[in-house]
Design brief:
By secondary structure, the protein is mainly alpha-helical. It is about 40% helix and about 5% strand. Strands 3-4-5-6 form a four-stranded antiparallel beta sheet. Strands 1-2 form a two-stranded antiparallel ribbon. The protein has a two-stranded antiparallel ribbon with strand order 7-8. A hairpin with a 2-residue loop joins β7 and β8. It binds (2R)-3-hydroxy-2-(alpha-D-mannopyranosyloxy)propanoic acid.
């Protein structure tokens, strides 16, 4: 085990760019928002000052309207990743966000000895980033969160987005210059060109519409859950610091709306705000509300989790469903960050993660049926969250 701990630390150190940590040096050479928050949690086990700096840098990317961009470019590596500033039509980063796990990261650091004055300095920014979601990502005022792009969810090509993506034209004005497919062992592990054309169409349409989502807006139970968890983490931190924020009240309102979206299948629903249709998709994302249900053991979604467990862990899609793909990114593989989040209610997912890493190293994702490592190597959040899991 000590070898793996050393290796995990080494990955963070190698992926360190001074103030932020790249997810993986070859495939992802910039800052990604939720990766960075997970990295900070890993840094907390190596160097608390460095962990705090990661969060500072991340929160300093915040726009005036509170949005933390999902990508902030490393200007020295613009040619190593597509799409870059010319497609986003923004010099510094992307124009969408990612799951707000930064409050969770700040609470994690606080519990492990981060400087109290520093924690205080993050509160307003975190509140503002949460406000961004409430204000700009709830187009039908449901107290739920709708993503503006599949990339915003972090689960890029998840089967649940197919419904909304079908309505997005696969036509773009920019040129499609993918560099990602050459950087993985098998291009079948990555989204298709057709999906990329639609991803870019959404990006272009955001530019054309003052960043107001129009062609793609899908209410996502995972995104809502992570904002509830974020608000709850913020509320606990603020309680300790004796600051009032209203975060718990916002969390409670969303939780009530979220838990009411469950169907008889146990899964929580998605809702496409473009054509106003509610639908089910047997994804791990639609089981996320379990994480905010205090009675999760009696929730009918809890036994459904078993349908997502292969010999090697928690699959991002129901294994017997016809859309399940054991190798393709968010359409089936196991991810260490979702394992980590579900380990909050079921310790088995911590054990699965440790076994996977022992078998296949710190990969981006894993085949849930045979444990093979897939996607990028030296992957930051796999290393960072491994350090969290072995230290808990
Ligand atoms: C993946 O997403 C990026 C686009 O944002 C990509 O495929 O190029 C996702 O797994 C996302 O969740 C993650 O934050 C990012 C960097 O690890 O890679």
């Amino acid at each position: 085990m000590q070898n793996l701990i050393d290796e995990a630390k080494d990955i963070l150190i190698k992926n360190d760019r001074g103030d932020f940590t790249v997810p993986s040096p070859h495939l992802y050479p910039h800052l990604w928002a939720w990766d960075s928050a997970f990295a900070a949690m890993g840094w907390a086990h190596i160097d608390m000052d460095r962990a705090q700096r990661e969060i500072d840098y991340l929160l300093n990317t915040q726009w005036e309207n509170g949005m933390v961009p999902h990508i902030t470019f490393d200007q020295a590596h613009l040619n190593d990743y597509f799409p870059g500033p010319d497609v986003w039509e923004h010099p510094l980063g992307s124009t969408i966000s990612q799951p707000p796990v930064w409050a969770m990261a700040v609470e994690y650091l606080f519990k492990r000895g981060a400087d109290e004055a520093w924690v205080r300095s993050t509160i307003d920014k975190i509140k503002k980033t949460h406000d961004f979601f409430h204000t700009h990502r709830d187009p039908q005022n449901k107290n739920l969160i709708a993503i503006a792009h599949p990339w915003e969810s972090g689960m890029d090509n998840c089967v649940a987005w197919d419904v909304g993506m079908d309505l997005v034209p696969n036509k773009i004005r920019n040129e499609l210059k993918r560099v990602d497919k050459e950087k993985v062992a098998d291009a079948a592990e990555r989204p298709t060109d057709d999906q990329y054309l639609r991803y870019l169409h959404i990006v272009e349409s955001l530019v054309d519409n003052q960043f107001i989502p129009t062609v793609f807006k899908t209410y996502d139970p995972m995104m809502t859950t992570l904002l509830v968890l974020g608000e709850e983490a913020l509320a606990r931190v603020c309680d300790k610091l004796e600051i009032s924020t209203g975060a718990q009240a916002r969390a409670d309102k969303m939780k009530e709306a979220l838990l009411a979206t469950q169907t008889d299948s146990g899964y929580y629903t998605y809702h496409n705000a473009v054509d106003d249709k509610t639908y089910n998709s047997p994804t791990l994302g639609s089981l996320f509300p379990l994480l905010v249900d205090a009675e999760f053991k009696t929730n009918s979604a809890y036994p459904v989790l078993e349908k997502h467990i292969g010999e090697f862990g928690l699959s991002s899609h129901q294994i017997k469903d016809t859309s399940f793909d054991e190798k393709c990114y968010w359409r089936g593989p196991t991810w260490i960050n979702t394992n980590y989040l579900f380990s909050m209610i079921d310790k088995r997912f911590k054990e699965y993660s440790i076994d996977l890493i022992k078998k296949s190293g710190f990969r981006e994702y894993y085949n849930p049926l045979n444990g093979d490592g897939l996607g990028a190597t030296q992957f930051t959040w796999s290393a960072a969250l491994f350090l969290c899991m072995v230290n808990e």
